[in-house]
Amino acid sequence: MADIKGPSGLTEDEAREVNNLLMKGWAFSVFASMGAHILVWLWRPLVYGGQAVPPDWRFF
């Protein structure tokens, strides 16, 4: 039954492998994005002790 192709033209095992790779790629991109946001927050937080922006407006 593993050699029966579905509507996508993939066998069930191939479809599971593609799905597994897509889920791993999605998880990696989510965690990489979260890490990047945390690093930017540590570098330049948006809240500076009651002020909305840094007093000199120089971000870089």
From TrEMBL:
Annotated InterPro entries: Antenna_beta_dom_sf, Light-harvesting_complex
Subcellular location: Cell inner membrane
MF GO annotations: bacteriochlorophyll binding; metal ion binding
Function summary: Antenna complexes are light-harvesting systems, which transfer the excitation energy to the reaction centers.
A GO cellular-component term linked to this record: light-harvesting complex
Keyword hit for Signal: no
Principal subcellular localization: membrane
Transmembrane segments: 21-43
Annotated SUPFAM superfamilies: Light-harvesting complex subunits (SSF56918)
Keywords: Antenna complex, Bacteriochlorophyll, Cell membrane, Chlorophyll, Chromophore, Light-harvesting polypeptide, Magnesium, Membrane, Metal-binding, Transmembrane, Transmembrane helix
Entry keyword Disulfide bond: no
Organism of origin: Dankookia rubra
Gene3D superfamilies registered for this protein in UniProt: 1.20.5.250
Membrane disposition: Single-pass type II membrane protein
Coiled-coil segments: none
UniProt name for this protein: Light-harvesting protein
Family designation: Belongs to the antenna complex beta subunit family.
